[in-house]
Amino acid sequence: MGEVDPAFIQDIQHRPKAASSPVQADGIPLIDLSAVVETAGSQSLGGGLDGLVADVGRASKEWGFFQVINHGVPPEKLRRVEEAAREFFRQPLEEKRKVRRDEASPLGYYESEHTKNVRDWKEVFDFLVQDPTLMPASYLPDDNEATEWSNKWPDYPPELREACEDYKEEVEKLAFKLLELIALSLGLPSDRFHGFFKDQQTTFVRLNYYPPCPAPHLALGVGRHKDAGALTVLAQDNVGGLEVKRKSDGEWIRVKPTPNAYIINVGDIIQVWSNDEYESVEHRVIVNSEKERFSVPFFFNPAHHVMVAPLQELVSEQSPAMYSPYSWGKFLITRKRSNFMKLDVENIQVHHFRLPPSQADS
Ligand SMILES: O=C(O)CCC(=O)C(=O)O
Ligand SMILES: [Fe+2]
């Protein structure tokens, strides 16, 4: 294939730089979680973690991104998912399309996602951590009906479902630990965020498959974006391609694959809960002409009925609330809806809920 469908072609200013010398992200902090993982089971975090909490706080503030090692997720569980995912994506399109996502149930396989109205060079398979999950029936603000979303598992490969279900249990434990560390780093009780995720969290896991691309200088695996949820726990293979926009100078920095590490990033919801103390940072994925790449993000999201707003404890006269509350469920389905059509307007973003300075002052 010499020619690339124009739907994939990025505007000049968003194309990757000549790929010869991407800036490697030595700067993205690497955090060792052994001290946390040793705390038993579902118990909340206790004392003695000050250094770790400070590292997580600094990384969240300066980068919005960090990597973790000794995180407690058994590597063979991720390997099983990757192997099954490779089998799945290797099939002909018509097989994969048997579990294609549709507007009624946006889980399963999808090959034509758009980010900022440009098509991504990737295929995905999404599944919910809670199956089924309650979601708003409509994006319209006055419609209070709820509906159930359910997973769509393919017949082939038969081991995909069990591998995925086994894996998400492990990553969920890690996600809660990270949430606790972030709460502590903001001076909050470690379980401050838990209530938002109890009963009906809307977390989903995505299997990302990036095929080799004949025009890696024109297209992106995923266009620049911020993650809309609370926290993302991402596994990437050893090919590399994730780039993070460095806060200090706006430079795109490549995140070097680190064996057995997870990449963690603060999403828009933590940005709002923290009242801008932490920021959700833009990132994108570069593709290449030789190698396929896999990644597995776990998008840790609260229940659909949660109204997202700056936490009371972090708001004061000196530091007024920067956002008006918004419904997470409505936000999420408005986003999903836009993936099915090219919109003339900008997709829904948290900055649409930002209060003007005069209101934030009052
Ligand atoms: O593939 C990656 O490394 C990141 C993917 C990503 O940012 C996303 O799916 O939101
Ligand atoms: Fe992302």
For the record, give the distance between the C-alpha atoms at the N and C termini, rounded to a whole number. Answer: 58 Å
Structural class: alpha+beta
Number of strands: 18
* Rg of Cα set: 20 Å
The residue fraction in helices comes out at: 10-25%
CATH topology grouping: Jelly Rolls
Order of secondary-structure elements: EHHEHHEEEEEEHHEEEEEEHEEEEHH
Name the CATH class: Mainly Beta
Based on Cα principal axes, name the global outline: globular
What compounds sit in this structure? 2-oxoglutaric acid, fe (ii) ion
CATH architecture: Sandwich
> What's the number of helices?
9
| Percentage beta strand | 15-25%
Order of strands across the biggest sheet?
Answer: 1-2-14-11-16-9-6-3
Q: Which runs of at least 5 residues are low in confidence (pLDDT < 50)?
A: none
Q: Main β-sheet: number of strands, strand sense, barrel status?
A: 8 strands, mixed
Q: Could you report the average pLDDT, rounded to the nearest whole number? A: 91
* CATH 4th-level superfamily: B-lactam Antibiotic, Isopenicillin N Synthase, Chain
Number of domains: 1
GO molecular function, one term: metal ion binding
Organism: Trapa natans (Water chestnut)
Domain Fe2OG dioxygenase: 201-302
Pfam families: 2OG-FeII_Oxy (PF03171), DIOX_N (PF14226)
